[in-house]
């Protein structure tokens, strides 16, 4: 059974990352993928990046990794510069904002529909939004997609005849009222995703938290 923990938007929150890593270990995950925005927000940017690098955690580059005013250590900046924009595995793609050529934030059923129209992957995992979301291609309304509800800590089973965009939430801070560290476990054997909400240290919301 392969269980993949998918984390995103750490933003220098090393304490939150350590807490999430403990939950990932306790959940029996085989590997981890990080969807970007490792830095820019908290005070421990170098520590976050070095931890991910030294533990050989696959990462993609986020917009805050690419554009910031930070003075990072050279080895940290070199690692960030080496990160890809996306990771593709068969019918799945992992990326930060969007797999589309035009990188619009995927926070609405209409933009998810745009993704389904432009790409052929069955499952798209994204970060950036800082809110957990599941969009499905099957929808009764033209020009839109279905927003699925889920329960934290319970598997959401994916329909093999549907396609999905899954926003995994954030380790750094959320943009909703749930004050938890959040990530996703993708169970490839059972074809399910489980959203995790973990108690831990969040970054304080500043003006940058809404961009």
Automatic annotation (TrEMBL):
It comes from the Bacteria. Pfam families: Metallophos (PF00149). Residues 3-73 form the Calcineurin-like phosphoesterase domain. CDD domains: MPP_superfamily. It comes from Floridaenema aerugineum BLCC-F46. This is Metallophosphoesterase. InterPro entries: Ap4A_hydrolase, Calcineurin-like_PHP, Metallo-depent_PP-like, Pesterase_MJ0912.
